[in-house]
Design goal:
Blueprint: E1 8-16, H1 20-28, H2 30-37, E2 45-47, E3 55-59, E4 65-74, E5 78-88, E6 91-93, H3 97-100, E7 106-114, E8 117-126, H4 131-149, E9 169-175, H5 179-187, H6 189-192, E10 202-208, E11 215-221, E12 227-238, E13 242-250, E14 269-278, E15 281-290, H7 295-303, H8 305-337
Antiparallel strand pairs: 1-8, 2-3, 3-4, 4-5, 5-6, 5-7, 7-8, 9-15, 10-11, 11-12, 12-13, 13-14, 14-15
Helix pairs in contact: 1-2, 2-4
């Protein structure tokens, strides 16, 4: 398949002990594909009739996702989709720079009968920044699809159903500032850059969009000059009391990367920030857990809770220092007007 400029093509193949017709149904029937689409993002589904030339919109629970057109539909043989845009918070986008990075890319499924059932081959074009993440998600999706086709529930994706469940990471703090001020400190770039990140690191914000499906992309420069990147993808934004986001280590292009200090650290962490007014103060609670993680990654995250408490304690000390400075500046400004 041809790829557009700067795209990479991912190819996967899996043998399924089921007929081509059964596999086709799993690809195109809503009650089936909602199950294995969850490997990419919980709640994902497709809005389409799958006819050639029809529009197809893949959306997750946050009303974000990809838009394309069905280019080829031959039941039991081939299904091809060409991507044309994306949807963010329900708004369709066909022209932005982000869309140009994948526009024209194809996702193709081929099915052929073999002695053991059906061989399903897929190929997908994607921007390099998302290649590793999407490849891992597809590995999981195909195992889910195979399990469904062979009579399972498709929900375990080859991972132990009796895996250990760990408690969430939780840190709480009450800060000396009103709710609206604290919320702005989390959501406005000029404020966030003054306190976010590990203590002693210099933070530079490349992009900040505090909207569902928006991104906070930033660099962190260590005292020794080493540069690391991080990103949030916002799931929920309820001003001024709640932010839900997926946090990952990143690269300069906004892709997901492994952390440099732990091979088994999860690549994605779901965080829920809650802010509650307490008079002129604000109670802050941050709760986090790994998602799309292996049992080893979940254990590593749990074993890192103590060091995370220390790290966030330093970050919140920086937040408190920033809020104190802002309060002093406001007081001085008020005195100057008298």
């Amino acid at each position: 398949m041809e790829t557009t400029t700067a795209m990479q093509t991912m190819k996967k193949s899996i043998l399924i002990n089921a007929s081509k017709e059964a596999v086709w149904d799993l690809l195109t029937q809503d009650h089936h594909n909602r199950i294995w689409y969850a490997a990419f993002s919980p709640g994902t589904y497709a809005e389409t009739d799958w006819k050639e030339g029809s529009k197809v919109v893949f959306k997750d629970a946050g009303n974000c996702g990809m838009i394309g057109v069905v280019k080829e539909n031959k039941p039991g043989e081939i299904l091809s989709i060409e991507y044309t845009g994306e949807i963010k918070n329900g708004v369709e986008d066909y022209d932005s720079e982000a869309v140009q990075a994948f526009k024209g890319g194809r996702e193709i499924y081929w099915m052929k009968s073999v002695a053991s059932g059906t061989q399903l081959d897929i190929a997908g074009d994607m921007a390099p920044a998302y290649f590793d993440w999407m490849s891992a998600a597809w590995d999981k999706a195909l195992v889910m699809l195979k399990d469904l086709a062979e009579g399972g529930d498709g929900k375990v994706a080859g991972i132990e159903t009796d895996r250990k469940v760990y408690p969430d990471f939780v840190i709480e703090r009450t800060v000396e500032a009103p709710l609206e001020t604290v919320y702005k400190a989390w959501t406005e770039a000029n404020r966030l850059a003054q306190w976010w990140g590990p203590k002693g690191f210099d933070i530079a914000i490349k992009k900040l969009e505090v909207t569902p499906c928006g991104i906070f992309h930033y660099s962190m420069t260590l005292p020794n000059g080493q540069v690391m990147w991080g990103r949030f993808i916002y799931r929920e934004v309820q001003a001024p009391e709640r932010l839900v986001y997926i946090n990952s280590f990143s690269d300069a292009d906004g892709g997901i990367t492994r952390v440099p200090f732990a091979d088994n650290w999860p690549m994605e962490m779901l965080n829920e920030l809650t802010l509650q007014a307490d008079g002129d103060r604000t109670k802050l609670s941050l709760q986090g857990r790994p998602i799309n993680a292996t049992p080893e990654e979940e254990a590593t995250y749990f074993n890192g809770h103590a060091s995370m408490q220390q790290g966030f304690a330093g970050t919140f000390e920086q937040l408190e220092a920033y809020l104190a400075k802002e309060k002093a500046l406001q007081s001085q400004s008020l005195l100057n007007t008298i």
